[in-house]
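Example for tutorial group B:
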């Protein structure tokens, strides 16, 4: 029997499929937006690959979410949007700093005009118990998107504040967090005070955010630093419905204690650490 290259490849593929079936693993895929060959991953493991970190990549398919788990998650999000936990809060209007409208294509797939966050309502609304004034996104750069159609800023400095507060609440997220369990900082806030001092607050994958485009019920929700970080909003768009129907968009509410509550905050700088994720800020509220 003569073994050709095509026969060898066919046998290898068949063996992989059989092994996946016998072990009960779900095969899911990462597909380049340019249509090149798919890269298979086994099971629900979040395995870092070269393909996953390339610009223009998106997870094309996730395992179908458990119906009950999805309903419970959405129910909790809705309940937390109907209840305000804060007292004497000040919502910061970020309109002068926004560099992406909610109707603009999102940074992980900038060529896809239907891939937007248009379902997120503008104006003041409650997310995870905190009111936020959403005027768009402050999108920062990251290696996963820096070669896309638009080059984003690596920092947005001098966001005017001018208030005392005990807590800082953020409505935020990040694209392309490859390994949330590694707890790598993807963004930070530099808080400037009226006495000339400053303080840095870090946002890291798995602690303050999971992937923005993620499985409907993210696999790593238990990694988040609850209750200081909470899944606050989920939505979708026509692009995801067509190309990634078992995925949703996810935003997180993160709360930091202000180490200097008796000193006025004059301004805040929002910076990307320029690891793989591309972070964005949708809301800022002081309490």
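The residue assignment follows.
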């Amino acid at each position: 029997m003569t073994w050709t290259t095509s026969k060898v490849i066919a046998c290898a593929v068949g063996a992989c499929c059989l092994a996946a079936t016998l072990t009960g693993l779900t095969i899911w895929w990462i597909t380049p937006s340019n249509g090149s060959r798919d890269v298979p991953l086994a099971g629900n493991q979040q395995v870092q690959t070269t393909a996953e970190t390339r610009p223009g990549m998106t997870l094309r398919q996730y395992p179908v979410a458990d119906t009950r788990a999805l309903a419970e998650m959405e129910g909790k999000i809705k309940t937390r949007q109907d209840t305000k936990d804060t007292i004497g809060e000040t919502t910061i209007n970020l309109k002068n700093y926004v560099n992406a409208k909610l109707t603009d294509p999102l940074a992980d797939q900038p060529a896809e005009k239907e891939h937007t966050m248009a379902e997120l309502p503008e104006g003041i609304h409650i997310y995870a118990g905190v009111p936020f004034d959403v005027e768009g996104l402050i999108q920062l750069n990251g290696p996963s998107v820096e070669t896309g159609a638009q080059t984003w800023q690596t920092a947005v400095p001098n966001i005017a504040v001018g208030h005392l507060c005990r807590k800082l609440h953020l409505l935020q997220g990040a694209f392309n967090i490859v390994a949330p369990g590694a707890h790598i900082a993807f963004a930070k806030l530099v808080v400037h005070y009226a006495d000339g001092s400053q303080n840095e607050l870090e946002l890291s994958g798995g602690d303050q955010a999971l992937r923005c485009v993620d499985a409907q019920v993210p696999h790593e929700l238990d990694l988040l630093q609850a209750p200081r970080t909470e899944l606050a909003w989920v939505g979708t768009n026509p692009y995801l419905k067509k190309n990634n129907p078992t995925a949703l968009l996810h935003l997180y509410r993160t709360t930091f204690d202000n180490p200097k509550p008796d000193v006025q905050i004059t301004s805040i700088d929002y910076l990307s650490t320029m690891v793989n994720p591309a972070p964005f800020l949708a809301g800022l509220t002081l309490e």
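Confidence is low (pLDDT under 50) at residues 1-59. Compare this with the pattern of hydrophobic and polar residues in the output above.
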